[in-house]
Write a structure and sequence with these properties.
single chain; 8 helices; about 20% strand
Length: about 325
C-alpha cells in the first residue's frame, strides 16, 4: 500500500532565503558508514517513460522481497540512483486534482499531437516535462534504514541540486526553494531549472528530480503551466552559463552535456547522504544488487527496441498538429 505524501516542502523557514543550509538539522544527512555504498547507473539512451516507471516499480518489488526475507541483511543494499533522459513526455502527479478523471487533463489538451506522451503518476507535484536535454534522477532509497524523514530527504535533494547549479552556472543567486517556498531550484523568482517530485512505498522512495541541462526542453515547457506556477518559465543550465559574467578563470571550456552533468551529480548525491558510491553492475554483482542490475539491463534493451520501432523521437514540439 502506498504511503500518502501530501506536502513536499514546508516553506515557513525558507520563505525568503537564498540557497544555504536546509531547515533540517544540517546541510547534509548524517554520515552513515554502517550502510553500504549507493549503486548508480547512467543510461546511454533516452528511456520511454513507461519503461522507466516499470523499472522503478520492479526494483522496489525486488527490494521489498529482500527486506521481507532478511530485514537485517538487506539493509540499504538496494539503494540505487538511476540517471537518465526520457523521450518527450509530460507527466502530472497526485497533487494535481483533475476536475474529471474521465476527461483529458486540462494541460494534456494543450499538448495533444505535438510529439510527446502524457502520463498521470503517483509522484508528488503537478504537470512537468521530461525529455532529451534534461537530466532525470530516480533515487530509490530506503528512508527507514537511513533514518531520514521524508521532508529532510526532499530538502537534501533540493540543496544538492541548488549547489550544483550555483557552481556550474557561476551564479550566486540560485534559489532552492523559491522565495515563496515552492519546491525546486530557481534562478530567479520567475525562472525554474530543476524540479523534485517523489513517491514512497513502504518508506522506499521512487521518482526523484529533474534538471534542465540543455535548452532543448524549454520549447516543450512553454506549452504548459509547469508545476502550476503561471508566472514561472523554465530555464536551463546552458542559458544560465551564457548569462554569467565572463572574467579571467571564469570561462567554461564547453557547455555541459547531460551525461557530463550526471557524472558531476553522482559524488554530490553521495556526499549529501553521507554514503560511498559504486557503479551498479560490477563484475560478479549478485544478491539484491545483482537482481536490480538485471532489471536495468532489461530496461535498456526495451528502450532501444521501443525507440527503434518508433523511429526515434521529436527534437521539438510539432505546433502544426496542436
Amino acid at each position: 500500500m502506498s504511503r500518502p505524501f501530501a506536502r513536499l516542502f514546508s516553506s515557513s523557514s525558507r520563505s525568503s532565503a537564498l540557497l544555504s543550509t536546509t531547515s533540517c538539522s544540517t546541510s547534509s544527512a548524517k554520515p552513515a558508514p554502517s550502510l553500504p555504498a549507493i549503486r548508480y547507473h547512467i543510461f546511454q539512451e533516452p528511456l520511454p517513460y513507461p519503461v522507466g516507471l516499470k523499472l522503478q516499480n520492479d526494483i522496489i518489488d525486488v527490494r521489498l522481497k529482500a527486506k521481507k526475507k532478511d530485514p537485517v541483511g538487506s539493509k540499504g543494499l538496494g539503494d540505487v540512483l538511476l540517471l537518465l533522459e526520457h523521450t518527450p513526455t509530460y507527466t502530472t502527479g497526485r497533487r494535481d486534482n483533475s476536475p474529471n478523471p474521465n476527461e483529458l487533463h486540462p494541460e494534456e489538451k494543450k499538448v495533444q499531437n505535438v510529439g510527446a506522451s502524457f502520463f498521470i503518476t503517483k509522484r508528488g507535484g503537478q504537470v512537468t516535462y521530461h525529455g532529451p536535454g534534461q537530466l532525470v534522477g530516480y533515487s530509490i532509497m530506503d528512508l527507514n534504514v537511513m533514518e531520514t524523514p521524508t521532508r529532510c530527504y526532499v530538502e537534501y535533494l533540493q540543496a544538492m541540486l541548488g549547489d550544483y547549479v550555483r557552481d556550474a552556472s557561476r551564479l550566486d543567486d540560485i534559489y532552492a526553494p523559491h522565495p515563496d517556498g515552492h519546491v525546486g531550484v530557481f534562478s530567479s523568482p520567475t525562472e525554474k531549472i530543476a524540479s523534485i517530485g517523489i513517491h514512497l512505498r513502504h518508506r522506499i522512495t521512487s521518482h526523484g528530480f529533474s534538471l534542465n541541462v540543455t535548452s532543448e526542453p524549454i520549447s516543450w515547457f512553454d506549452l504548459v503551466v509547469a508545476c502550476g506556477l503561471d508566472d514561472v518559465r523554465a530555464t536551463s543550465l546552458h542559458e544560465l552559463i551564457k548569462r554569467a559574467p565572463l572574467s579571467e578563470g571564469n570561462i567554461p571550456a564547453c557547455l555541459p552535456s547531460v551525461q557530463g552533468a550526471a557524472k558531476k551529480i553522482v559524488p554530490r548525491f553521495a556526499e549529501m547522504f553521507g554514503r560511498d558510491v559504486e557503479v551498479l553492475g560490477r563484475e560478479g554483482e549478485e544478491g539484491e544488487a545483482g537482481k536490480i542490475w538485471e532489471l536495468v539491463k532489461e530496461a535498456e534493451q526495451h528502450a532501444r527496441e521501443e525507440n527503434a520501432k518508433n523511429g526515434g523521437w521529436a527534437s521539438e514540439p510539432d505546433l502544426n498538429k496542436r
